[in-house]
Amino acid sequence: MRGWQKIGGVLLLMLLLAGLTGCGGSNPQGNGAGAGTQANSSNTSTGKPRYSVALEATFAPFEFRDMKTGEFTGFDIDLIKAIGQVEGFDVDIKEMGFDGIITALQTNNVDLAISGISIDDERKKAVDFSLPYYQSGLVVAVKADNNTIKGFDDLKGKKIAVQINTTSAKEAKKIPGAMVTELDKVPDMFLELKNGGVDAVVNDLPVTAYYIKQGNNDVKIVGDIRSAEYYGIAVPKGKTEILQKINDGLKALKANGQYEELYKKWFGQEPPAFLPGEPPQQKS
């Protein structure tokens, strides 16, 4: 009797172990940073390729969260989804800090990034860029009652807030004697300005203009636009298939009028003639 009890116990133990192996032995895909980042992964409901898209969602009107729904919205969101529609792929949004986006692309943790990323020579060494889809520039913002700072030339020796690892930060650091504070998110910069922690904010024109338009009349833009720059959609080096789809999609949206519709929706004006789908003309 004891022998059968022992054998029965061993059999029971083996069955339990087999059950546990069946439940937890595999490594299913989850919602972590690496999930859904392979270019050949597909959406099981549509059968389309599914690309993970990195962005930093405090850069209105390009990307931000709708206060009512909590969903991502903005010009960049609409644009990448429209590209996906014409090129036959789905997108999986991955929110992260702006300073981590290039690294995420380099390590193939995401398939592409659209987050108001300026195309510059330093970034082109790390990632590949699409054709430009937006022309921007940098401006100075101060408190509405500040009448001493009237532009970039008045920022010498001043305290300036910028977003970390941006072209705004690079430009501000060129200013003699400037004390530059780099912050993670756009709202943090303007909060620092309002609280008196800095004298000015250097930021992209459309983002600053949109911020003021939302009822923040205690802030104003002063001076001229500096450092005209172009935004591009970034992909990891060598991902030529994805890059080709992005460029073809931009051209298709320009041809069918969707790009113009989206531009008017978010910026209330006609887009520049060259955008998107063709490189800007160099001034002679």
UniProtKB/TrEMBL annotation:
Keyword tags: Signal
Domain Ionotropic glutamate receptor C-terminal: 50-269
UniProt keyword Transferase, yes or no: no
Domain Solute-binding protein family 3/N-terminal as annotated: residue spans: 50-270
Keyword Coiled coil: no
GO molecular function: ligand-gated monoatomic ion channel activity
GO cellular component, one term: membrane
Database matches in InterPro entries: Iontro_rcpt_C, Solute-binding_3/MltF_N
Source organism, top-level taxon: Bacteria
Name of the molecule in the record: Glutamine-binding periplasmic protein
